[in-house]
Amino acid sequence: MMPKIHFWLALAALSFVSLPGLAAAALKIGAPAPAFIGVDSNGQTVRLADFKGKTVVLEWTNDGCPYVGKWYRSGAMQQLQRDAARLGAVWLTIASSGPGEQGYVDAAQANADTKSRNADPSHVLLDPQGVIGHLYGAQTTPHIFVIRPDGNLAYMGGADSIASTRVEDIRKAEPYAREALEAVAAGKPVPHPVTRPYGCAVKYSS
Fold it and tell me: Disulfide-capable partner of 173 in 67, 145, 149, 160 (CB 3.0 to 4.6 Å)?
C-alpha cells in the first residue's frame, strides 16, 4: 500500500500536469508542432497534417472576450487573416470554450460569428472539450501560434505587445503575430519567437 504522504504527492503531481496551459511548457520553438485532428464549423475533418508544406496559424477565440473584440472591431484580425492567405498560409481559428461557458459556439453560431465579423479564416475548429487547446497549452483569447511549412513551431504568444482592450493601442504595439507570419514567409528567423499571451482566459470545460 502506498504511504499516505506519497499518495498525496503523486496526486498533486497528476493534478499539476493536467492544469490548462501547462502543455505549453512542453512546446519548443523549432520542434514539431503537436499533431491534431478536429472538426470545423462546416462539419469537415481537419488535420494539421493536411497542411504539410504550408505555414499554419492557430488563433484561439472567444467572441464574448473584449480583447478579441478589440481585434475584430478594428478589423486588424481580419486583415491579418487575409494577409496570411496572400502569403500562402492556412489560418485556423479555434473555439475551445466548453458548453455553458462564455465563448462556447456550435457550428451554426461559429459560422454566424465569422460572417458578422467579416472574418476570413481557412477553418473555424470547434474544440468544446478543449483537446486541441490543452495540447497547445492555449491560455488566452486571443493566443497565437505560427507553424512553419516544415511542421515546426515558429511562434507562440500574444497578437501584439500591448495588453489592452483599446483599439488605438494596436497601432502603437509591436505586431508580434504579424512579424512572425512575415518572417516565416520570408524564410527568416522570427524576431520574438515566444511572447506573453494576453486576453481572457480560455474557458475550458470544467
Answer: 160
The answer to whether the CB of 198 falls within 8 A of the CB of 142 is no
What pLDDT, in 10s, does the model give residues 162-196?
Answer: 999 999 999 999 999 999 999 999 999 999 999 99
Provide the residue range defining the domain that includes 90.
4-201
- CA pair distance 182, 167, nearest whole angstrom: 22
Structural domain count of the chain: 1
pTM for the complete prediction? 0.88
Strands 56-60 and 90-95: parallel
- Which is nearest to 122 in space by CA: 84, 79, 92, 164? 92
130 alpha carbon, distance to own chain's centre: 12
| 3-state secondary structure (DSSP) of residue 130 | coil
Q: What CATH code is carried by the domain that includes residue 112?
A: 3.40.30.10
Asked if the structure places residue 206 within a domain, the reply is no
Is 171 a domain residue? Answer: yes
What is the four-CA torsion angle of 46, 49, 33, 138, rounded to 10 degrees?
A: 0
101, 107, 109, 114: CA torsion to nearest 10: 110
